[in-house]
Design a protein that fits this description.
The structure is a single chain. This protein is α/β, with parallel strands linked by helices. The protein is 32% helix and 18% strand. The protein contains 15 helices and 17 strands. Strand 1 and strand 2 form a beta hairpin. Helix 8 packs antiparallel against helix 9.
Length: 398
């Protein structure tokens, strides 16, 4: 694969710097117990073949859960935060004979991809790479992205089973050349083995664990590489990045103590409440919009592959009694349109400030599939906090 456009920037690395980076990586990774975050040490990541010569790394401004190293011979190595590595090369480029056996080879551009996580579809849509997908783990009715729904309707995108039970026969006969899964697949390792066993490489997307919306959106660059649409991916990212930069200037001068408080949650069918972890990207979005996340971590769940925590209704009530704004997360239990609907599920919340003031909102049910629209969603949150009414992904409950 020949690097072009914004991937062409090259940085020289001296032997001394390489050695220092290697030592720093070893020291920083010992016994931390924290969520997986990649250290920028190409010397460590690139030692996968004696036939490959490190050239430069992709300059990432926000993402911390993946890295890309390019080689002078033409291919590149994608490393994700669980230490899985993927060697991307054009079909005409030879694969190094001594390539580390743990490295998954992906021939690019992909032609017949199988996409499991619905949150990754917008990357393909945004970089004009939807035509590189042939199979989906979502039915047509499950897509809120019109481009994906249309592709399912016209047959260019086919349902090939859920992420945990893919239709192996359909994928094989359809010449699937890459299965893209999110971190949910880590709970079904046998599925990974089955896919790889029939020659279908598996790529695991860690974008949902990025702690900032910019970092999550920057994963579009990975899919730009996979689809051969690098320039389009960069443009899609820069457009949303500019929205964040504008908002940061507008909200930078507001002291933390003067920021309105926001609770982002949903009530589960058993009466418990799901809230975001303090490190979650939604919390970062609230802060970028000029607000302050108002719910403490429950501290009950240590799974680093989860961005939410579950607390009791009583805990939620105590923590959010004086919260200024409620935002209902529609991705789990669906949209809400009236405050009365919310109070039927949680009558105790009637005493909360946000409810009394009428500052209760719901996200639209398509928000979580619009991964590359997060700059727009932050703008929505800013509108909410400043009394605006022009929303793309928010609904004010009546």
């Amino acid at each position: 694969m020949r690097t072009t456009g914004f991937f062409r920037t090259c940085r020289s690395v001296s032997c001394l710097l390489v050695f220092c980076l290697f030592l720093l990586t070893l020291l920083s990774g010992c016994g931390s117990g924290e969520e997986p975050v990649l250290e920028q040490a190409p010397s460590v990541r690139s030692g996968v073949s004696s036939e490959l010569t490190y050239d430069h790394s992709l300059d990432l401004g926000y993402a911390t859960r993946y890295a890309v190293d390019f080689f002078k011979e033409g291919g590149c190595l994608v490393t994700v935060a669980d230490d899985r590595q993927y060697y991307l090369a054009e079909k005409t480029d030879p694969v190094p004979k001594d390539l580390d056996a743990a490295v998954t080879v992906i021939h690019v551009p992909i032609r017949n991809g199988y996409l499991s996580g619905s949150g990754s579809m917008d990357y393909f849509v945004s970089c004009n790479g939807l035509d590189r997908l042939k199979f989906s783990a979502q039915q047509e009715s499950g897509w809120h992205l019109p481009e994906a729904a249309e592709a399912m309707h016209n047959g260019s995108l086919q349902f090939a089973g859920r992420y945990s039970a893919p239709d192996m026969e359909l994928l094989k006969t359809g010449k699937c050349d890459l299965a893209i899964q999110n971190t949910m697949i880590l709970h079904s390792p046998a599925v990974i083995e089955k896919l790889e066993g029939v020659g279908i490489p598996v790529f695991i997307d860690y974008a949902s664990l990025e702690t900032t919306p910019e970092g999550r959106m920057e994963w579009v660059k990975v899919y730009g590489l996979m689809t051969g649409r690098e320039k389009e991916a960069d443009l899609a990212f820069r457009q949303q990045e500019n929205e964040f930069k504008k908002l940061k200037k507008e909200t930078a001068d507001r002291p933390e103590g003067e920021r309105p408080t926001v609770a982002f949650f949903n009530v589960n069918s058993n009466g418990t409440v799901s809230v975001r972890k303090g490190s979650d990207y939604i919390v970062s979005m609230i802060e970028l919009a000029g607000g302050q996340y108002h719910l403490p971590d429950a501290g009950e769940e240590n799974d680093v592959n989860r961005s939410t925590e579950t607390i009791s209704m009583e805990e939620f009530y105590k923590a959010s009694l004086d919260t200024d704004y409620f935002v209902w997360n529609s991705s789990v239990e669906g949209e809400r349109y009236t405050i009365e609907e919310l109070l039927k599920e949680a009558p105790i919340l009637a005493d909360c400030k946000a409810v009394k003031d009428g500052n209760v909102y719901s996200t639209t049910n398509d928000l979580y599939q619009h991964t590359m629209g997060q700059g727009t969603f932050v703008r929505d949150l800013h509108e909410m906090l400043t009394g605006g009414t022009d929303f793309s992904y928010l609904l004010k409950l009546k």
